[in-house]
């Protein structure tokens, strides 16, 4: 049982900065920030989990089984990620043989000794018994710490050289690959597939924390994440929830459909309305909604799968997104890992039909996706969970000095290669800006 203390706050925004800075002393850090994005499905405004007592790290072989055993045995909060390549555990005839410059573990979860849960003006602190004697001192240190505001305002001079970003797939090759994807669609092998490309830098040295802070300030997404696992870092500005379980309710919110924001409010509204009525974008979204409904039905109670929102436009600082919300009810005895396994990887990052799409994606993409288009999140002690989709994310290995971010788009029968390429560059903009200042 954890030792818990609750404190009221005058300034939640300040405590977020203090917590994030204080956490930097630890080798295992997971920071989740909703950027004050309030929706009816929000659990917390921010969560910090640090210092592993126990952890599970594995490749895809029997990964979900191992996670199930670990989650049940721990019976506590656990935080971590599922990489896209766990698809090979879900479906035996899938492989991941593309180039991997990062080599992060394919599944990673840890049980934190120290946990901070922020909601509105309340901070709940939960420490495991072996460190509970540090709780008061830690709180004192956090609350009294001075904040270097230049770190949060990006006026800090970037001591590192800016990484030189390269493309794994060049423009003409991208057009060619999308054309091959369209041939599969016209042949009837698939209706839609998410095709991704990697941008990367070698011999790169970045400051992970200031890069994350910059990326987060550009995008202010509801599922921002800063993760450190020793020398590997995940800096994510994801706008997308993959799946959440609250009691017996399961919620999935796929995104399909993107348009850029404009400075002029009338023009901006016009572009949002165009996205709302765009036939191609709606068709993409509805195809994925059908796929998610099908996935959720595998664990749902009969007749409980419903679409709460269809093709709703949500606006973020950089882009407008078309998001749908699909829900289901599960039995109280339903194993939570089974819900993840039967819906993984999320439809918005694969295509339809899912397995054929994943096989075609593997053949046409040049890079192993790894954490990109996987999921980051946590389990609570009472079998609830919440996971994002790993998009708009920078991955960094400090030892290898390798920086990577990937972007993708849904290819359907109506796709035009040039337009798809433009959409990729739009999605890549925030990551590039965060890295190149």
Name some characteristics of this structure.
alpha+beta, globular, 32% helix
CATH class: Alpha Beta
> On the 0-100 scale, what is the average pLDDT?
95
Shape: globular
Biggest sheet layout: 20 strands, antiparallel
The number of strands is: 20
- What is the distance, rounded to the nearest whole angstrom, between the alpha carbons of the first and last residues? 45 Å
CATH superfamily: Anthranilate synthase
Tally of distinct domains: 1
Q: Which regions have little confidence, pLDDT < 50, spanning 5+ residues? A: none
- Give the strand content: 25-35%
Approximately how much helix is present in the residues?
A: 25-40%
What structural class should be given to the helix and strand makeup?
A: alpha+beta
The number of helical runs is 12
CATH topology term: Anthranilate synthase
Rg over CA atoms: 21 Å
Question: What would you say the CATH architecture is?
Answer: 4-Layer Sandwich
Please provide a written account of the structure.
α7 crosses α12 (417-436). The relative contact order is 0.18. The N and C termini lie far apart (45 Å). The chain has a single domain (3-144, 161-436), classed as Anthranilate synthase. The chain has a 20-stranded antiparallel sheet that branches. Helices cover 32% and strands 32% of the residues. The protein is globular. The chain is built from 12 helices and 20 strands. It has helices spanning 12-22, 63-74, 87-90, 135-144, 149-153, 171-187, 208-219, 265-277, 279-297, 336-341, 354-364, 417-436; strands spanning 3-8, 28-33, 46-58, 78-82, 107-119, 122-127, 166-167, 192-201, 223-229, 232-238, 241-246, 249-252, 255-260, 306-315, 319-329, 351-352, 375-379, 385-388, 393-397, 402-412. The mean pLDDT is 95. By secondary structure, the chain is of the alpha+beta class.
């Amino acid at each position: 049982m954890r030792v818990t203390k609750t404190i009221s706050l005058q300034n939640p925004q300040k405590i977020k900065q203090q917590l994030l800075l204080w956490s930097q002393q630890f080798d295992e850090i997971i920071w989740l920030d909703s950027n004050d994005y309030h929706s009816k499905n929000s659990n917390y405004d921010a969560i910090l989990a640090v210092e592993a007592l126990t952890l599970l790290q594995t490749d895809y072989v029997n990964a979900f089984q191992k996670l199930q055993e670990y989650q049940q045995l721990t019976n506590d909060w656990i935080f971590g990620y599922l990489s896209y390549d766990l698809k090979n555990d879900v479906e035996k005839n899938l492989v991941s043989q593309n180039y991997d410059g990062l080599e992060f573990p394919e599944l990673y979860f840890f049980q934190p000794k120290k946990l901070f849960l922020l909601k509105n003006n309340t901070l709940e602190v939960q420490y495991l018994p072996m460190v509970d004697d540090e709780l008061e001192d830690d709180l004192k240190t956090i609350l009294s710490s001075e904040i270097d505001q230049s770190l949060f305002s990006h006026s800090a001079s970037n001591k590192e050289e800016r990484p030189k970003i390269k493309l794994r797939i060049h423009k003409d090759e991208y057009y060619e690959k999308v054309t091959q994807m369209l041939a599969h669609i016209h042949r009837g092998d698939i209706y839609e597939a998410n095709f991704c490309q990697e941008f990367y830098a070698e011999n790169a040295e970045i400051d992970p924390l200031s890069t994350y802070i910059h990326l987060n300030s550009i995008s202010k997404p509801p599922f921002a994440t800063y993760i450190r696992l020793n020398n590997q870092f995940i800096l994510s500005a994801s706008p997308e929830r993959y799946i959440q379980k609250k009691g017996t309710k399961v919620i999935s919110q796929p995104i399909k459909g993107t348009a850029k924001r404009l400075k002029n409010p009338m023009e901006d509204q016009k572009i949002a309305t165009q996205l709302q009525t765009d036939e191609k974008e709606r068709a993409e979204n509805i195809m994925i909604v059908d796929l998610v409904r099908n996935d959720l039905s595998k664990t749902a109670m009969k007749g409980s799968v419903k679409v709460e929102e269809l093709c709703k436009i949500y606006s973020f600082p950089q882009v407008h997104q078309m998001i749908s919300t699909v829900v289901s009810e599960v039995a109280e005895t339903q194993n939570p890992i089974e819900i993840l396994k039967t819906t993984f990887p999320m439809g918005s990052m694969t295509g339809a039909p899912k397995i054929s799409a994943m096989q075609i994606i593997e053949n046409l993409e040049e890079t192993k996706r790894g954490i990109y288009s996987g999921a980051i999140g946590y389990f609570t002690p009472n079998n609830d969970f919440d996971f994002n989709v790993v998009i708009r994310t920078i991955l960094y290995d400090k030892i290898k000095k390798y920086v990577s971010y990937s972007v993708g788009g849904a290819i359907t029968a109506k796709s035009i290669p040039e337009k798809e390429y433009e959409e990729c560059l739009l999605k890549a903009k925030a990551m590039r800006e965060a890295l190149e200042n």
